[in-house]
Write a structure and sequence with these properties.
With 321 residues, this protein is of the alpha/beta class. 44% of the residues lie in helices and 19% in strands. It has two domains: 2-186, inorganic pyrophosphatase (n-terminal core), CATH 3.90.1640; 192-320, Diaminopimelate Epimerase, Chain A, domain 1 (Roll), CATH 3.10.310.
């Protein structure tokens, strides 16, 4: 599949799509592919997040916010588990598109050229495999973007596997990039609006526990992922933070690696919930998201109940052992 994907990426003019509020893993993956398989444009129909925006400015990465698929020979999608995370209005992804992802497959890319490895912590690792397998040298800025994606998607290595560390070190060695350059690339001060959003979410926390396992939920207007991390630092093992905009909701989830090892997989939790509620969700063991139409507080309650059920199963299993 790596060879076949690389050959398809060599064909004609491409547009590379990223999911809404695209993170550094998505942008790093898209930028490296655009540099290594020209000519390519990167399109973020749903915008990019704060860290990505900062890196885009530092590296001078060109991003477009709208496109006409008819203007391109090939459409590629990276780091996206469902078309619903990209599309707006009446748009649809062409049936011959290339999809490169590392999330648990959702079945929503049926018919596409679909390359997925959900054992990868970051999509950037899979992109590195594609580029290296094609015999293409990764230039310095593209390597910086890939390393930035690996370090952020692994929670600054908190969730890294040995494979992630090997890929990271190998790319550093090949390009002569130093660790301080990578940290400096993705480091930024938290703005006042984000600080306020986090404080508000902390004040709205609801929690419950089974034994020594704590699940917490909260809601706010923005910065759900940052709020999740802050609530985890206060002692929760699993956190769900949501926001409501008119009829639409968005939810982020995070879990400690210890609770993931004990049996929690947030991608499964939100994937199951998305199937039950006709929303769009999924992700990894320790980080996942859910979005759709509905009431965020009802969704948060369902997340709490599902997690409590899983906690009880973990306690029963560990008691038997």
């Amino acid at each position: 599949m790596l060879n076949e994907t690389a050959e398809k990426l060599r064909e004609g003019k491409k547009v590379i799509l990223v999911h809404g509020n695209a993170d550094m893993d998505a942008i790093g993956s898209a930028y490296a592919l655009s540099v290594c398989f020209p000519p390519s444009d990167i399109c973020a129909l749903g915008g990019i997040d704060r860290i990505s925006n900062m890196v885009v400015e530092k590296l001078g990465i060109p991003i477009i916010e709208e496109c006409n698929f008819d203007d391109y020979d090939t459409v590629a999608v990276v780091d996206t588990s469902s078309p619903d995370q990209i599309l707006t209005g009446e748009m649809s992804i062409p049936g011959n598109s290339i999809v490169i992802d590392h999330h648990l497959p959702t079945g929503k890319w049926e018919g596409m050229h679909f390359l997925c490895d959900d054992s990868k912590i970051s999509c950037c690792e899979l992109v590195v495999d594609i580029i290296k397998n094609a015999g293409i040298k990764i230039e310095r800025n593209a390597a910086l973007a890939l390393l930035g994606g690996m370090i952020t998607d692994s929670g600054h290595f908190q969730f890294a596997k040995a494979e992630t560390l090997h890929a990271f070190a190998s790319l550093m060695d090949e390009t002569g990039i130093h660790m301080d350059e990578i940290f400096q690339l993705t480091k930024s001060q938290i703005g006042m609006s984000e600080r306020i959003a986090i404080m508000k979410s902390m004040g709205r926390v609801k929690f419950d526990h089974v034994g020594n396992m704590i699940v917490a939920t909260s809601y706010g207007g923005s910065f759900e992922a940052s709020s999740c991390r802050s609530i985890m630092l206060s002692g929760a093992d699993v956190v769900f933070v949501g926001s409501q905009r008119d009829e639409e909701f968005r939810l982020s989830a995070r879990a400690t690696q210890d609770i993931v090892r004990r049996g929690i997989h947030l991608g499964d939790v939100l994937g199951d919930l998305s199937a039950e509620t006709d929303s769009d969700g999924g992700g990894h063991g320790g980080a996942a998201g859910l979005s759709g139409t509905g009431d965020v507080e009802a969704m948060l309650h369902m997340c709490m109940m599902k997690t409590m059920d899983l906690f009880r199963k973990i306690r029963e299993r560990e008691t038997i052992l």
